[in-house]
Amino acid sequence: MSDDKTSNEAGLISKAIDGLLDRGAAAVLITVIHLPEGKSTGLRVGSKLLAPQPGERVGTTGAVQLDEAVNRQAHTFISSRDEAKVFAVEEFAAELAGLHGVQLLFERIEAEPRLIIAGAGHVGASLARLAALVGYRVTLVDDRPEFIGRYLFNSPSEQSIDLVLAERWADSIRTAVAGGRGVSVAIVTRGHKQDEDCLRAAVSSNPSYIGMIGSKRRTNIVLDKLREEGTNEEQLKRVRAPVGLDIGAVSPEEVALAILAEIVAERRGGSGSPLSSWRRA
User: Fold this and answer.
1) How confident is the model over 39-74, as pLDDT tens digits?
2) pTM for this model (two decimals)
3) DSSP state at residue 182
4) Is beta strand 209-212 parallel, antiparallel or unpaired with respect to 183-187?
5) Residues 88, 89, 94, 99: is their CA dihedral positive or negative?
């Protein structure tokens, strides 16, 4: 492959990555990292292919049949929890005997996870701080300016938290959620009216996760209100209410941990069950 062609493909891959990150989408970047000695494969170490959707690809490994096999494997890989993994060709395309021994690095490419928190009370503030530490891009929304002053979130890890003063809850939530894909919304406001406004806006924005704090009675009141308004039942079934995993949380910090644990489990495909449960099977 000529240097000009390689440079052109690298530019196309870079542009495609920028586009999918802007959309909140995900893809797999595959790089040829090892060729077997003394074996002619026609490939080149460093060749890259980006697989954004099934059947789509940008760039090439250098072999059409390998590109097709890699594209299939990419969408198996992206369903896993791995961030990166090395595969030998024979592990996923045994029929390509001439390329056995070739190794490729599969890397997940996706925007940093986003968390929109409606309500900056004790739980909301604790959740914002914890999520920022874990690596989420956090937006904390409240209609009370004294709850979202920057002086309240001034440690180095909290500087990235985006603080939004809501003049209208629904408008602020819709704006913050934007495209929705890869976005989690946690509703931890102080009352039914705020919960309704935020949930209505969140459901219509179609984020990847929606959770709402409150007792079963309180959350059912809000859900029933939206149901009466004609909100799609399938959309309402996606709402985690009451939000969080059952860890026996009491303090605001513990409640925040329970909420974030559920958000991470949903994003990563975790079950939320104890890792030691196999010992009791």
Assistant:
1) 788 899 999 999 887 678 899 999 999 999 999 999
2) 0.77
3) T
4) parallel
5) negative
Beta-carbon contacts of residue 187 (< 8 Å; ≥ 6 apart):
118, 119, 195, 198, 199, 202, 210, 211, 212, 213, 243
Structure tokens at 212: 């709402």
CA–CA gap between residue 9 and residue 119 (Å, rounded): 45
- Chain centroid offset of residue 228 CA: 31
Q: Look up residue 180 and give its amino acid.
A: G
CB 240 within 8 A of CB 262: yes
199, 189 in Cβ contact below 8 A?
no
Q: What is the pLDDT of residues 87-114, one digit of tens each?
A: 999 999 999 999 999 999 999 988 888 9
Q: What is the pLDDT of residue 82?
A: 83
CATH says 114-268 is which class?
Answer: alpha beta
Q: How confident is the model at residue 147 (pLDDT cuts 50, 70, 90)?
A: very high
Domain boundaries, the chain: 3-110, 114-268
Distance CA 48, CA 5 (A): 12
Provide the token pair at 270. Answer: 């975790």
Please, are residues 138 and 115 in contact by the beta-carbon 8 Å criterion?
Answer: yes
Residue with tokens 């029933």: 224
The greatest distance separating any two alpha carbons of the chain, rounded to the nearest whole angstrom, comes to 71
Instruction: Give the up-direction half-sphere exposure of residue 240: CA atoms within 13 A in the CB hemisphere.
Output: 22
3-state DSSP assignment of residue 164:
strand
Here the tokens at position 80 are 């896993």
Look at residue 158 and tell me whether its pLDDT is greater than 90: yes
